[in-house]
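Need tokens for this chain, all 325 residues.
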Amino acid sequence: METGQVFVSYCRDDEDLARALRDRLHDASIDCFIDSSRIRAGDHWRSAIVSALHESAAVVVVCTNRSVQSHEVTFEWSYASGLRLPVIPVIYEPSLALPAGLDGLDRLDFVDPRGRQWDRLVSRIMEARAENSATVAHLVRLGISNVFSDRQELFRRFTVSQVLDRIATSSDLLVVGRSLEAWAREFRGVWTACETRSIRARFALVDPALPKDSWMTPSAYATLDVQPSVEKFRLMPHLSPQAEGSFELYFLPNAPLFSFTYYQDLIGPCGILEIGAGLPFEKRHSFILRATDSSQASLLESILATCESMLTERVPAFTLESREP
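Here are the structure tokens for all 325 residues:
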């Protein structure tokens, strides 16, 4: 699908309204995504919905007393808001109280069938598609789903605990950075992922024995964190004999100017790339990389290969071993 499609969010009881909306937008040459299989298992539903949202230019929410109480609908427009997609509430019932998050958005009145604001809806969608074509679509073709200039925004949406929650069972986790201080704080969560979910984790940070004046971009903050990070990782207990996960810690011969995290979730491979590791926070840029087709996958794979080459033929400084039964 192209990124010009519109995602129609609705609850199952309002399917007739959603289909009528889709048909009317189709007459205006606007493609819509409507999920008509909501009785499937939750994991299958969630994966399909997330993929469709990443491929959409805007989200139209069919707002009724039923839909505003639907957990599925709430997830859809909330996730879309996190992607910075335009969310357009379309009101079908009078005096409808919208939940926080929707109540501050510009809404369209579709209560009276004779006075529905179709022209305004089409205009809003076309504006969203034009903006998407100028910015997001180009980045998506490069394999980039989101770009963050605000490091705090990146951390709100991709915290260590969130990544650990999203990572698929029996998948790989590769983390390369300067000090990995945020990951070290969550060493118990990393251990749990390896122990109970068979995660194969490889972490690489700068060698704490490296003279600080040899760092490509010295950072007092990072140099203070390197050794404590190593010590926290070493606090992880042995894995049980039946555990199929693993953990390896590598030391790098210099301090990289970027950090990279790679894992697999319900959507597929995901990479979090932060450039400018030695620069002030406001001068760093972060990219979320998604392999949604073969051409986009090559970008993510090339960065992954670069990071893995740093570890080739290196002996892990620390390996989490299974304890004896």
